[in-house]
Amino acid sequence: MKIDGGEMLIRGLVQQGVREIFTLHGGHLDAIFQAALNHGVRLIDVRHEQAAGHAADGWARSTGRPGVAMVTAGPGVTDVVTGVANAYLDCVPTLFIGGAAPLVDAEMLPLQGGIDQLALMQPITKWAHRITHTHRIPDLVAQAWRIATTGRPGPVFLEIPADVLFKRVEETDVVFPQRVRPEAAPAPPPSAIEKAVALLAAAERPAILAGGGAWFSAAAAELPAFAEHTGIPVFANAKARGMVPDDHPLGGRSFNTLAVLAQMGVPGPDVVLLLGARLGLFTGGRSAMMIPLAARLIQVDVAGEEIGRNRDVELGIVADCREALRLLDAVACVRTWPERAAWHAAVQQARAFPSLMFAEAVTRSAAPIHPYQLAHALASTVARDAIVVADGGETASWMDMAAEVHGGGQWLSHGYLGCLGVGMPFAIAAKVAHPDRQVVCITGDGSVGLNFAELDTMVRHGLNIVTVVNNDKQWGMSLHGQELIYGKDRTVGTALGPTRYDLAAAGFGCHAEHVEQPAELVPALQRALASGRPACVNVMTDPSVIAPVTQMLVAGAAPKPGADDTVRMPYYGERKV
């Protein structure tokens, strides 16, 4: 019997446990679509290829397993580039499949051809490959999967020209690999484990900073166990937040809590265990904003080239985070660990600082609604196991301060690309992966415009997601940044209108709410969650309130008289030139 390339591709994906693919139709892909139909693989067709890419990324973030997106040739591939780049910078395991014009039509100016799609994808993927022989599709799918999920995770791209995909070959000539991934992950040597435990045990203020390496190594059980046995607080980035619940006695919430400690004048950690977290912007870079310069660093990462980036590391360990945690815990369990009550109290105080700082905002009774008031109301209304997606510059930061995250994969937000518009695609993926749980997406009125049509995707696929728009009629971080740097009379290109996103959402078939008064807020959110439909809650908020993150990012950027060898920039501060 003869089978085509679409059948081979779907069989290879099903073998890896794939039952969902995010896509947008194009004729180049029809052989795959038909095979998916035959095998019961669900195709979640979106309204823009960028959304398909972000959804594959969001699937991996919410499940810990690779996400798959499939796009057509030419504009389909160029449209998905932002989604691929976002996954690449955040080391998220994803597989992107792109159609292409027939090989035999090379240099003939065919439809949706004429560009080197591999050259486009190579700088933003771990591996990009063009399949040129139909019978090779299954083993190259296996190769792509192995590359995406081993070592440092990340996106891979497979291009399949139409003549390769639609060709039929004898099934007996096709090899379907049975073992794709290695059975064991790399473990650290015992000597490194002993040294790490000794450093942590001797510390007065030890801290664990968990990143994507902890989440994607499936260390959801090992991380809290080690923290509890040692009494070491855990702080997490967006990919790892919730692995130790925010309300756990040792839960330090996000990395931002470390910055709060510094603002409170409390000495920060003196020994830091970095678990799959890179030393970049979100860990303070080379500054002492989060990690004191005198702190001794232990860095565990599966990618050896990451160890020592930006900061000297006392002990670097190249290993899988779960394997490292298992061995660390085994050694830690035979020790007696100090209580460190003062350090724990300081962390808890810093963790609660935003709620104290904005206590008055939460009780505001007159319009306009304070943005933290909105974030607090949403956090207080959703279920404990809800998945919260935060999108937007200032909007995501308000939600970061208010949210209570109680499990891994329950907090999805921005990373190093700083890419707006991820919210609704991330939420779609989370709801597909977890249909029985509440999924809410809070987004700024700037970022909501980037993938607003995905409300239609939610309606067509019966994805009852609640999208909450923080509508302050502006690109908040941008406008506030201009005000802080140049003055309130020098804002340009940053204003938006009082758009009725709720009415537009109703046109797609969503439950719609419009909120202007604080007293209306919680009832509107409750109605949206109970509606049993995709919902949009359009909340008019105070445009004058500047988020702390904006003040921090533009600090030092205002023009000042002084030396000519410095330059001051939004988001990056002052730099020597």
What is the structure about, briefly put?
With 577 residues, the chain is of the alpha/beta class. The chain contains 22 helices and 22 strands.
Task: Describe the fold and architecture.
- This protein has 577 residues and is an alpha/beta fold.
- Helix content is 38%, strand content 18%.
- It is built from 22 helices and 22 strands.
- The strands form five sheets. The protein has a six-stranded parallel beta sheet with strand order 3-2-4-5-7-6, sandwiched between helices. It has a six-stranded parallel beta sheet with strand order 11-10-9-12-13-14, sandwiched between helices.
- Helix 16 (393-402) links the parallel strand 15 and strand 16 (411-412).
- Helix 3 packs parallel to helix 4 and helix 15 (371-381) packs across helix 16 (393-402).
- The longest helix is centred in the middle third of the chain and has 17 residues, at 341-357.
- The radius of gyration is 24 Å and the shape is globular.
- The model has no long low-confidence stretch (mean pLDDT 94).
SSE layout and pairing:
Elements: E1 2-4, H1 5-15, E2 20-23, H2 30-39, E3 42-45, H3 49-63, E4 67-71, H4 75-89, E5 94-100, H5 117-121, E6 127-130, H6 137-149, E7 155-161, H7 162-166, E8 168-170, H8 190-202, E9 206-210, H9 212-216, H10 222-230, E10 234-236, E11 251-254, H11 256-263, E12 271-275, E13 296-301, E14 315-318, H12 321-332, H13 341-357, H14 359-362, H15 371-381, E15 387-391, H16 393-402, E16 411-412, H17 423-433, E17 439-444, H18 454-460, E18 466-471, H19 476-486, H20 501-508, E19 511-515, H21 518-530, E20 535-540, H22 548-554, E21 566-569, E22 573-576
